Amino acid sequence: NGWDYGFKGSLLNDRLTFTLSGFYAIRENVQVTDLEETPPGSGNYLTISRREGNQLVRGYEFDFNWRLTETLSAGGSWGHIYSIYTDFGSAFPQAVGRRVNGISPENGGAYVKYTPANPKLRGFSTNLGVTFVDSTPTEAPNAGDTMGRVGGIVVVTRSTNQWRLRIPSYTLWNFGARYRYAPAGSRLDHTFAININNAFNLDYLRANKIPGDLRSVFFTYTVNRGG
After folding, report:
1. Are 175 and 195 within 8 A, CB to CB?
2. pLDDT tens-digit profile of 6-64?
């Protein structure tokens, strides 16, 4: 539960449109581990998994589209996410305030698209895009911690700091080109496209620690029938 808020705008006779929004929410029912004294007063504690944890999720997003000229347009987006555990169960109280694993704190992208004005190139367009994903926590907030009870309080007695581990940030470039051919007097139009993802063949890891896709090239042909 939480709040979303923001506004939209346009400038330069609607050639530039943008959206700026923020959010503040609490994610509830997160699976956590509690300690339960069984029986009460015995000093013996059992670990029990419950969906009673919480996460704070807040941040902002910005995106825009800009028609620079009749042939050139650009756009982009950026997002910031601050996500931490506010309740990770009584067995691991030290996890409160630590980052939620798998959530990138910063990410964004941009693109530029070119559509020639020359009538001989009508139907042709090309685009270049880039995406960025910031360094992302990969481990649970209690990973590497050894817990103990000191003076009746659960504390970290030893830690390898595994919970601090992150995958590196990465930037991917993509390229595309397409041509739409619509013969006069025909109900059929044809679109030929090529897309190159991860154009520089970057070796990177996703937030789940699985290797990302290397360079890939896709050729697409689409035929549409109108009328």
Report:
1. yes
2. 999 999 999 999 999 999 999 999 888 888 877 777 777 788 888 889 999 999 999 99
Give the model's pLDDT for residue 156. 92
DSSP string, 7-33: EEEEETTTTEEEEEEEEEEEEEEEEEE
So what's the pLDDT on residue 227? 59
pLDDT of 200 > 90? The answer is yes
- Residue given tokens 């209690």 in the structure block: 142
**DSSP for 188-224, written as a single string:** EEEEEEEEEESTT----B-TTSPBPP--EEEEEEEEE
Evaluate the CA torsion angle 31, 35, 39, 40 in order and state its sign. negative
Q: Does residue 20 contact residue 36 with C-beta atoms inside 8 Å? A: no
Query: SS3 of 110, please?
Result: strand
pLDDT bracket for residue 103 (50, 70, 90) = very high
Cα(166)–Cα(178) distance, rounded to whole angstroms? 38
Tell me the CB-side half-sphere exposure of residue 163, using CA atoms within 13 A: 20
